[in-house]
Design goal:
The protein is an alpha/beta fold. It contains 5 helices and 5 strands.
Length: 132
């Protein structure tokens, strides 16, 4: 399977289901060029995973929404939940280990913990009636 170009327009639909790995990159970035064949090889070997690429020069708003400050950065999703983010060009063995770990996650636990974290964040950013 080849990689998919990820944009602000197709982002939400792309990350909604299954396992999605996103490579944030730029054409001028040497480490990005080093990581590209590793990412492509993994995409060929794991047809059940969506491998997406974000050109940070073309998709500045999307990169900013992730807080990308270093490229390449690899971001992983499973079932619509962001579960992994790491800057740097990963060697093939490390990328395979990441894929193995993402596959083995107990998603019921992850979904519960994610929902709790989102609720806590919303509560922390919502002013209490007493504060008004």
């Amino acid at each position: 399977m080849s990689t998919k170009t990820l944009t602000i327009e197709n982002h939400d639909d792309t990350v909604a289901d299954g396992i999605v790995l996103i490579d944030f990159w730029a054409d001028w970035c040497g480490p990005c060029k080093q990581f590209a064949p590793v990412f492509e090889k993994a995409s060929d070997e794991h047809g059940d995973i969506v491998f997406a690429k974000v050109d940070t020069e073309d998709q500045r708003q999307l990169a900013a929404s992730y807080g990308i400050t270093s490229i390449p950065t690899l971001v992983g999703y499973r079932d619509g939940i962001p579960i992994f983010s790491q800057p740097g060009a990963l060697p093939g063995q490390v990328l395979e280990d990441v894929i193995k770990q993402v596959r083995s996650l107990d998603m019921e636990t992850v979904k519960k913990e994610y929902a709790e974290a989102v609720a806590a964040q919303q509560q922390a950013t919502t002013p209490s009636p007493d504060a008004v």
